Amino acid sequence: MLGTYFNQFTDAISSGWNQFWFQRESPKTVSCLRIVVGAVALIYALTFTSELAIWFADGGVLPVDRTYRLTGAADPSARVFYWSIFYFARNSMQLYVLHAVGLISILLFATGLQTRITSIIATVFVLSYAERAPMLMGVLEPLLCPVMLYLCLAPCGAYFSVDAWLRRRKGDTLEVPASFTSHLATRLIQVHVVAFYWMMAFAKLGNPVWWNGEAMWWLIAQPDNRLVDLTFLGGSEGSRLIVFAWSHMVVFFELAFGLLIWFRIWRPLLTTLAVFHWTGLGLVTGNWEFAILMIGLSLAFAPWESLEIASQDSASSQQQESPAQEPINAGV
C-alpha cells in the first residue's frame, strides 16, 4: 500500500509539472504582452535621448573606462562582466546613431513587424541601455529585461501586429495554432512577476516603517518625483489613519497577489485590484513606467482565458435554450 501511495504521489507531481510547463497555448496572450512591454521599453529608451552624450560620451559623466572602474569590470580578479553595445560608441555621433537604431528596433517590436527578428534586436538594445551604466538602474530594468527575453521565445507577433495585418492581406485568415513556446513564455513571465511581488513584499516586511504604517507617508512627503501632491492627508487624525491603512494594504496585496493569483477564480479580481494598486503607487512615487509595466504584466494571468471561458459559457447556454423555444411540432 505504501508503494502504491508513493507511485500515485510521484505521478501526481510529474503530471502537475508537465501541465504547468509543457502545454500548448494560443499566442494571443504573448501578443498582448508584446504591446505593453514594447511601449514601456520605447518610453524607457526615449528617456536617454536628451542626455545620452552627457552621460556616455568620452567627455561625459560615465565614459566607458570610468564605468569599468566603478563596476569592477576592469579588475580581472573581480569576475564582474557587463556588456553593452554602447561600449563601442565613444563620441556623440556614434552614440546617437546607435540610439536611433535602438529606438527603431523597439518601435518595430512594439508594432509587431518582423517580430521574430526585431524582438531579439530590441532586447539586445534594452539590455545595452541597462548594462551601459548599471549603477543608474532602478526598479524597472530587472523586470523589463527578462520579460523581453522571454517574449523572444514566443511568436508574440502572431496577433495585434503588423505581421498579422500583412498575413491577412495575403489571404491567410487561419488562426495561428497554439504553441508550446507561447505557453512557456507566459509561464516564465508569470513566475517572474510573482517572484517580483514577493520580493517587494518581503523587503517591506523587513522595514519597520511598513509595520508601523508610516511608509506611505514617507513616499507622499518626498517632493522630488511624485506626480500628485497628497500631503494634505497628513492634516488630520482621520486622514493619517487612511495613510496607515494604505501602507498595510500595499504589503497585504503584494503578499496575496503572489499566492492567490495561481487560483483561476481570483485572477480577474486581483488583476483589477492591481490597476488601482499600481496607479496609486505610480502617482505617489513617480515610477509610472514601472507601474504601467506591472499593470500590463498582470494580464499574463487572466484576460484571454477569462474571455474565452465566458464566450464558451454564453454560447453553450444559448444552444441549450434554443431547442426549448421551438414549437413542439416544429420537426413534423
Automatic annotation (TrEMBL):
Residues 313-332 are annotated as: Disordered. The keyword NAD does not apply. GO terms for cellular component: endomembrane system. Its main location: membrane. It is found in: Endomembrane system. It is a multi-pass membrane protein. Keywords: Membrane, Transmembrane, Transmembrane helix. SMART domains: HTTM. InterPro entries: HTTM-like (IPR011020), Sporulation_signal_mat (IPR052964). Residues 22-306 form the HTTM-like domain. The chain crosses the membrane at residues 32-56, 68-89, 96-127, 147-166, 187-206, 241-263, 275-301. PANTHER family: HTTM DOMAIN-CONTAINING PROTEIN (PTHR39535:SF2), SPORULATION-DELAYING PROTEIN SDPB (PTHR39535). This is HTTM-like domain-containing protein. It comes from Bremerella alba.
